[in-house]
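Form 7-S
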Amino acid sequence: MKQGFTVWLTGLSGAGKSTIAERLGPELTARGRNVEVLDGDEVRTHLSKGLGFSREDRDINIGRISFVASLLVKHDAAVITAAISPYARARAEARKRIGENQFVEVYVRCSLKELTRRDVKGLYAKAIAGEIEHFTGVSDPYEAPDNPDVVVDSETESVEESVGKILAELERRGHVPAGVKAAV
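Output:
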């Protein structure tokens, strides 16, 4: 039961990856896991500072996240990553590095229309107007997973429903015991 694993949250900016990570962490802790969260924005600030948003730089960033996650997994940590990770090949390399059963890819799906509606900073509107270059899902591609381990839809599901789906997959794989709820 104590083997490490990584929940790899992928999806467009604003889809809810960080929110899900914030709710999932206490649930895993309540089930006896040591949890580490690797948030894409924090990693870019501390571990990948200086990288831009070219395909190569994005792949380097995801490679660094998967390297750190693999080290933590080897020490039995429950790792949650919340990074856009737009390219299928980089995610496949992360899965290979971390391990097939230890890598749980979660696609956090949300429509561009809903993301634009939610966006309090107006970044999607600016990207759609051509004011921001290399914006994932608008002027840069996002390759949605073909066969993710879990799909959550932040447009139609509550955060609790999404976390419940992820926990069900982790229970199925034997990474966490069933039926324990965090006191949050």
